[in-house]
Design goal:
The protein has a domain at 103-222: 3-Layer(aba) Sandwich (Rossmann fold), CATH 3.40.50. The model is unreliable at 1-6 and 41-55 (pLDDT under 50). It has helices spanning 7-11, 40-47, 57-70, 90-99, 115-131, 161-169, 181-189, 193-196, 202-216, and strands spanning 28-29, 36-37, 107-111, 135-140, 145-146, 153-154, 173-176. The protein is of the alpha/beta class. The chain has a 3-stranded parallel sheet with strand order 3-4-7, with helices on both faces. The chain has a two-stranded antiparallel ribbon with strand order 1-2. A two-stranded antiparallel ribbon has the order 5-6.
């Protein structure tokens, strides 16, 4: 639950004919590794879907989130990853309610190491506990910057906040991901970071985190 580039942009998955009025919505996908992506923001901005019917904005958002689950032709999936905004809001509750019938694996909680972010994420952990959503683990993002010239790591924000949060909450700490200009560029351009930059300092961190999650559920709903 952290700020990041828009997922359809990251995967280059938003195609011109994603939304098909007479049938289920069809998410876009890239030929290379077949991620499928559908974004609420893109629906509203690119296709002028300003909600899912009459009523207050939170009700329309809730209805649209439910449509993303029930009215999208996802096809055969190994995992369904729902990226939510930071914080705890009606959107988070709507996502939990929409996915509950499918027995989701749980929540992957992402924080940056500084105290302000850790405090916000602590409330998200409380939210997960209240709604009965298992926490798969905590990931610390932006955990230091590794200089591309000398390989020295500088802790720009601080360090260890995510690990300490996980320890206090009694949930697994999955790892730390350093700041990496190549990772940012890959996300913005929709490139495959793992294939393109295996020597990056972020590569082993991301691979280790992914493997820990896969060990929890080789195939499931995440």
């Amino acid at each position: 639950m952290a700020l990041m580039p828009w997922p359809p942009l990251c995967t280059q998955g938003f195609l011109r004919h994603d939304l098909q009025p007479s049938r289920a919505w069809k998410p876009g996908r890239r030929p290379a590794h077949h991620p499928r992506s559908l974004g609420k923001g893109g629906c509203w901005e690119k296709h002028h879907l300003h909600g899912a019917g009459p009523g207050p904005a939170p009700r329309r958002q809730e209805a649209l989130i439910k449509q993303f689950v029930s009215d999208v032709a996802w096809g055969q999936l190994d995992y369904l990853v729902v990226d939510t905004p930071p914080g705890t809001s009606d959107e988070h509750m709507a996502v939990v309610d929409a996915l509950r019938p499918y027995s989701p694996l749980g929540a992957l909680v992402v924080t940056t190491p500084q105290a302000v972010s850790v405090g916000d994420v602590r409330r998200e952990l409380t939210f997960c506990k209240k709604v009965g959503l298992r926490v798969i683990g905590v990931v610390e993002n932006m955990s230091g910057f590794v200089c591309p010239h000398c390989a020295e790591c500088t802790n720009i924000f601080s360090r260890g906040g995510g690990e300490e949060l996980a320890r206090h909450a009694g949930v697994p700490f999955l790892g730390s991901v350093p700041l990496d200009p190549e990772l940012t560029r890959s996300l913005e351009e929709g490139r495959d970071f793992i294939q393109g930059f295996p020597e990056s300092p972020a590569f082993p961190a991301l691979s280790c985190i992914a493997q820990k999650i896969l060990n929890e559920a080789p195939v499931g709903l995440c």
